[in-house]
Design a protein that fits this description.
Helix 2 packs across helix 5. Helices cover 76% and strands 3% of the residues. It is rod-shaped, with a radius of gyration of 54 Å. With 234 residues, the chain is mostly helical. The chain has five helices and two strands; from the N terminus they run H-H-E-E-H-H-H.
Length: 234
């Protein structure tokens, strides 16, 4: 599987998958085929595990220790250099030995130079991938910093606005209380007056009740006298 396929299956962004492959290659069993590196299907679990550990806040050294305990480690050993085939056996070399040796050495140097160029090109590709990943992360870090700055500014504005709102509300309530004080004084005076009037009314009612009882008693006496007078006349 190519890194692009692994990114699709795991949901890990391709630059991040390349970074994982570079940092933890001993646990991914990658094999180079030409200019591409292919990974077995079993490496999907390793990529996912690495992503989970980074998401949990683990650092690279901690993740490597955990992978060492959970997954087998594969150390890639390059193929042994192929022996340089001489164009002829020693006993077949003629008097043109310096020319033959020069030709053999030229081929060997050309082959070694070609391999060195290829390895250098691969190293440049990896550096380019890492630079792209670093640029991406740097952009994300810059966005986060800008976001935190904006958030802090907004929090300060909200705090100032809330403080201003509270102050204005306190001022309005104080003004209303001051405006209500004369009305409260009038209401207290009316309440005292009503209380006094109520006491006077109670006293008057009590006196009238006494007077009413006295009048009833006098009427009963008059009625009794009238009855006695009528009885005498009869």
């Amino acid at each position: 599987m190519a890194l692009s396929d692994i990114a699709k299956h795991t949901g890990i962004p391709a630059p991040t998958a390349r970074r994982y492959a570079s940092l933890f290659k001993d646990y991914l069993s990658g094999r180079r085929l030409g200019r591409m590196t292919r990974y077995p299907e079993q490496s999907l679990a390793v990529f996912q595990r690495i992503g989970e550990l980074y998401a949990d806040g683990r650092i690279t050294s901690e993740i490597e220790d955990i992978l060492r305990r959970e997954f087998p480690r594969t150390i890639e050993v390059g193929p042994a250099p192929e022996p340089i085939a001489l164009p002829a056996m020693v006993n077949e070399l003629t008097g043109n030995l310096p020319g033959n040796l020069a030709e053999v050495l030229s081929d060997a140097l050309s082959h070694a130079l070609s391999e060195s160029i290829e390895h250098f090109s691969e190293a440049l590709d990896k550096l380019a991938e890492q630079k792209t990943s670093l640029d991406t992360h740097q952009g994300d870090i810059t966005k986060l910093k800008n976001g935190f700055v904006l958030l802090a500014r907004n929090l300060k504005r909200v705090a100032k606005r809330e403080q201003a709102d509270v102050s204005s509300q306190v001022t309005r309530l104080s003004e209303k209380l001051r405006a209500m004080e004369p009305k409260l004084a009038v209401m207290e005076e009316i309440s005292l007056t009503l209380t006094s009037d109520n006491a006077d009314l109670k006293a008057r009612l009590a006196a009238q009740e006494v007077e009413l009882r006295r009048l009833r008693e006098e009427r009963e006496l008059l009625v009794a006298q009238l009855r006695r007078t009528g009885a005498l006349q009869g």
